[in-house]
């Protein structure tokens, strides 16, 4: 499927899910409730959404560039600073 058709299909699914108060998480691809997700909307269109579960385990950075909205994510990693019992 060419990229524009895929984009249209994703947009149609996003619209259908949004009418039900839901969205598909861009990280884990699970359907989640909109009121339990971090979402970015532009001109009334959902352009990015991530569920609460993924926000707990990911660092999400959202910004804008001259090309549009960009999202970066990274797995949260613990940084041990002192060994146990030490
Ligand atoms: Zn998720």
Helix content: 25-40%
- The strand order across the widest sheet is 1-2
Task: Label the structural class.
Answer: alpha+beta
Tell me which ligands are bound.
zinc ion
Taken from the alpha-carbon principal axes, the silhouette is: elongated
Q: Can you tell me the residue ranges where pLDDT is under 50 for at least 5 consecutive residues? A: none
Strand portion, in percent?
A: 35-45%
Discrete helix count: 2
How would you describe the overall organization of this protein?
It contains two helices and six strands, in the order αββββαββ. The chain is of the alpha+beta class. The protein starts with a helix and ends in an 11-residue tail after the last strand. β5 (58-65) and β6 form a beta hairpin. Helices cover 27% and strands 41% of the residues. The mean pLDDT is 87. The structure holds zinc ion (ZN). Zinc ion binds next to β4 and α2.
Provide a short characterization of the protein structure.
The chain is 27% helix and 41% strand. The protein is of the alpha+beta class and 86 residues long.
What are the SSEs and their pairings?
Elements: H1 3-19, E1 22-24, E2 31-33, E3 37-42, E4 45-51, H2 52-57, E5 58-65, E6 68-75
Antiparallel strand pairs: 1-2, 3-4, 5-6
Bound molecules: zinc ion (ZN).
Task: Give me some keywords for this one.
86 residues, alpha+beta, two-stranded antiparallel sheet, 2 helices, 6 strands, binds zinc ion
């Amino acid at each position: 499927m060419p990229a524009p058709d895929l984009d249209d299909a994703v947009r149609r699914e996003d619209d259908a899910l949004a009418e039900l108060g839901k969205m598909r998480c861009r990280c884990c691809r699970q359907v989640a409730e909109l009121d339990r997700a971090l979402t970015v909307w532009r001109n009334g269109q959902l352009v990015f959404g991530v569920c609460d579960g993924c926000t707990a385990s990911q660092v999400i950075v959202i910004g804008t560039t001259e090309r549009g909205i960009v999202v970066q994510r990274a797995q949260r990693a613990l940084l041990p600073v002192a060994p146990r019992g030490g």
